[in-house]
Amino acid sequence: QVQLVESGGGLVQPGGSLRLSCAVSRSIFSIGTMGWYRQAPGKERELVAAITNVGTTDYADSVKGRFTISRDNARNTVYLQMNNLKPEDTAVYYCNARYQNLQPWGQGTLVTVSS
Q1: 97: which of 2, 5, 49, 90 is 20 to 30 A away, CA to CA?
Q2: In the predicted model, is pLDDT for residue 1 greater than 90?
Q3: What is the pLDDT of residues 55-68, one digit of tens each?
Q4: Closest-CA residue to 63 (of 98, 17, 96, 97)
């Protein structure tokens, strides 16, 4: 079964930056479009960014202009650069396939934006 290991979360002040990484135990090129998701306390998990094999990206309106998704197919790793973080970005962040989510999900990485 595939393993998804997210890392890079932490506590950051509003306006700060973090870079998340997601190591995948399978070829992400073979998986195709990858995505970063987040789940805030008491809310459903939502897709925040996606990237195709050729680097085409798409973002939720709430993060557009602040977050950048990228991928390294050779390293089977997906990244999420998060700038100008806001308290409403506080959530557990996960990566997974954009379509036909892989099982099981990783443990996620917690991002807390607070002063």
Answers
A1: 90
A2: no
A3: 999 999 999 999 99
A4: 17
